[in-house]
Amino acid sequence: MVTLEDVKNNPEVQELVIGAQKQLNALGYTEHSQRHVSIVSNRAGNILKTLGYDEHRVELAKIAGYLHDIGNGVNRVDHAHSGAILAYNILKDMGMDVKDRTEIMSAIGNHDESTGTAVSDISAALILADKSDVHRDRVVNQNMVTFDIHDRVNYAVTEANLKIDNEEKKVILDLTIDTKICPVLDYFEIFMDRTMMSKYAAKYLQIWFELIINDTKLL
Question: How many distinct structural domains can be found in the chain?
Fold first, then answer.
C-alpha cells in the first residue's frame, strides 16, 4: 500500500505543493503550503480514526488531505478538479490500487464549497479538516493596512481547535476570535458556505457539527 510518508517523500508532490503556494502568493491568497496540507491531512485521518474507521480508510484520508490543494499550481479556479486528476495520476505512477486512488480523486474533487459536497467518508473527513483550518498563521500578507476581509478574519482567529466526540457523535469547531480585529459577523460573511458544507459533511458521517466562537455555541 502507498502510505502518507511515501506521498510526502515523492519529489513531484513536493514541487506541486511548493508551486501551488507560489501561485497563491502571487494572487494574494492565504497560506495553502505544507503547513496547511499537513494540518488537513492529520485532522482528516484523526476524524475517521476517532469514529472507528479502519487503518486503511484513515490512511487514505490522510493522503487525500495532503494532496487536496495541489491543483492550485494549475489555477485557483477549479483547483479541486485539476488537483484530483493530478493526484490520481501521481498515485497511479506510485502503484496505488485503482480503487484507492479513485476514492482519493473523488474526495479531492469534492472538497471545494463552490462545486463539491461530501460523497464518501474520506470526502467528508477532508471537508471537515480543510474548512476548520482558519487561523492567523494562514495570513501571508504582513501589512495589516492592506488586509482584505479574508486576511482580517483569519488573522483575528487566535485559536482554532477541531474536536471529535465519538460518544456524543459530534464534531466541534472551537474558535477564539479577537473581536478588536474583526467582529464575529465577518466570519460568517466569508465562511457561511464552508460552515454549511461542514455541517453536511458531518451529517454524512452520522455525527453533528457544532460551532463555538468565543465560548458561545452558534450552531
Answer: 1
